[in-house]
Amino acid sequence: MKNIIDDAGILAIGTRLLRIHDLLRADGNSFYKTQGIEFETKWFPVLYVLSVKSPLGIMDLAQQIGLSHPALIALLKELEKRDLVDSVKDTRDERKRNMFLTEKGSDLVHQLRPIWTIIESVLVDLTENTNNLLKALNETEEKLKESSFLQRAEAMVKEKLAKNESPQIITVKLVSTAEEQSIVSAIIKQELAIDYPSVSRNNNYYYLAFINGIPAGSAVLSATKENQSVFDLAVLPSYQNKGLEIALSNAIEAKK
């Protein structure tokens, strides 16, 4: 079965980046173990930043790493339990804590540097492609600093509303009620001149596609005598080429 997420293109970029992250994290943790070092990849940003600049306030550390304050606090507690980092009160503001590497943490970083050199070489090999991943990530992060994803999405919605264009939300549903199945049959009969029964039978699966809540496309997946899956798909003329065809096809491929 082809990968539906891959076919989703740019829409699934977050999912695919997370997939790469999970692969690198799992292999990274395994590599540290093969080198006889007890270390987890999630510890890297804190130990690395503090090895370059220390002591460092928690807010400054969070900004350097790009973690939320609660996420960083949880990570610091874990590292403190392992005696890899510690804190001192800020001399100018006793309410603040400044983090630093302990002697054990510094020794661990010293052990890790040759390992990081190898990891860096592997990552260069992975990312030095026709379209350089690291360069693309840098450019994307700069754009997000200028204007966040949320700000851009809200601005696009406002722009569409100003043009009287409501955002088009497409959903596909495997329908089971007689009323919904009759709509599926009616759309296919109108567009393809194929007369399906108004109620599903003989292992037929009826799909209904909606755009902004309006039923505008349908498909029927059925099995032949040779037990092969075939389907018919139709979209009403005024809603064609708006993504309904792809959405229906993806839903059917997932069912096969």
From TrEMBL:
Top-rank lineage group of the source organism: Bacteria
Entries under PROSITE patterns matching the protein: HTH_MARR_2
GO MF term list: DNA-binding transcription factor activity
CDD domains (UniProt xref): NAT_SF
InterPro entries for the chain: Acyl_CoA_acyltransferase (IPR016181), HTH_MarR-typ (IPR000835), MarR/SlyA-like (IPR039422), WH-like_DNA-bd_sf (IPR036388), WH_DNA-bd_sf (IPR036390)
Name this protein carries in UniProt: HTH marR-type domain-containing protein
Annotated source species: Pedobacter antarcticus 4BY
Domain HTH marR-type: 10-155
Pfam families per UniProt: MarR_2
BP-aspect Gene Ontology terms: response to stress
